[in-house]
Amino acid sequence: MVNSQGPIPRGELVPSGIVGLLGTQGPTSRTDIARALGLSPATVTQVTKDLITRGLVEELQSVPSKGGRPARLLGLVTDAGVAMGAKVTADHVAIVTVELDGTVRSSAAHDYDPGADDAIARLGQILAKEVAELDDRLLGVGVGVPGSVDSQASGIVDAPTLSWQAAPVGPVLRAAIGTPVLVDNDVNTLAAAERLYGIGRDHSAFLVVTIGRGIGCGIVVDGGIYRGANGGAGEIGHIPTEHDGPDQPPCTCGSTGCLEAYIGAAGIIRTARARQVIGPRGDLATLLRAATTGDAAARQVFDQAGAMLGRALAGVIHTIDPEVVVLMGEGVDGWELWQTGFEPSFRRSLLPARRAVPVVVEPWTEDQWARGAASLVLASPFDSTGNGGEQSRLVRARLGAQ
Ligand SMILES: [Zn+2]
Q1: Please, what are the domains in the chain?
Q2: How far is the CA of 233 from the centre of ligand 1 (A)?
Q3: What is the Å distance from ligand 1's center to 321 Cα?
Q4: What is the model's pLDDT at position 106?
């Protein structure tokens, strides 16, 4: 039996693995817990007895079972803990608080200038104020940033779009907040959420591709997020697409001709303005309106963006060989406009054996980035690969399931 949550939990990870499973899958019988986590029935009986005694897990109603006596379901006492998630952008910080089962309990947004001299300290103040309004059930804070992060547990960030270089986000926030803090690339946090609550429950190799301000990719292989040697895996927005040179559009990374420079929000607007499809002050909303009301030139801008994404993504499929691709981000609101260019270009560029790879488009909500960040904390019970290191261990200790 494949355990969709990744490797089978062993030793100290068994109790929190069971808590995590109940949090992500809802009420489950002991038999199904044993099957899902690859544990012996005796281990599950013993560990769940202890979790019930400690008030983390409760016995729920019985459900009829074929032939045997009714199976008792076990459920999580969801108010046993909450996690906070924060997504840092170029102009604001979005924050959510979520229950152990991933339900969003509250959300907030704060104006924020990442380019300020005291930007990291200021982020610490914003989060400390939010944390102070919670009670002591907070398990930890997850932070998503548009850049690369050395490790979730350390949290040193390189993010050109925020003007951050080797920014000590993890250490400063831990000192300011006094709780475990896990930091990762924002698209990786969406992949972490999908791994717990979405497509990752049925697939162990998948891509989360985001379109919007930037173009990003979270890579899940063998049930775990693939981060690369420096936490920089999945930066598909910087795939060199056209020849390098001063006649190509500049990218936020300092290079020219990157995929994102063409089909990130700013690139699409630049193209539309240059072709006079929209005026010099026209924005993405103007262009979307024109395209949805049938303006052929506006539709062509999205069509070409879709085709460019399709060719680039085919290369990523050939490299990673995922079972499925999940498409997310602010840009999916206009996906039907991208799709006319994307589908033929993507399928034609794929090897025949990969041509049928499914692309699932997920509806997008504003709080999804911050919820993804919170799932770094909620994934700690399953952290058998050690991504979260000491910080995940501290989360498990706070959960009382260790
Ligand atoms: Zn670039």
Answers
A1: 13-78 (1.10.10.10), 81-192+367-399 (3.30.420.40), 204-322+330-361 (3.30.420.40)
A2: 14
A3: 24
A4: 93
How far is the CA of 65 from the CAs of 29, 40, 47, 70, 72, in angstroms?
10, 20, 23, 5, 10
Distance 232 CA to ligand 1 centre (A): 13
Query: In terms of DSSP bridges, do strands 206-211 and 181-185 run parallel, antiparallel, or are they unpaired?
Result: unpaired
Edge-to-edge, what's the strand order for the sheet holding 324-328?
A: 224-225, 215-221, 206-211, 324-328, 359-361
pLDDT tens digit sequence for 31-59: 999 998 889 999 999 999 988 888 888 88
Q: Are 261 and 267 in contact (CB under 8 A)?
A: yes
- Phi-psi sector, 62: left (phi>0), alpha (psi -120 to 50), beta: beta
Mean pLDDT of 345-351: 97
In this prediction, residue 119 carries a pLDDT of 97
CA of 250 to the centre of ligand 1 (A): 8
Q: Cα of 264 to ligand 1 centre, how many Å? A: 10
Q: Report d(CA 163, CA 155) in Å as an integer.
A: 16
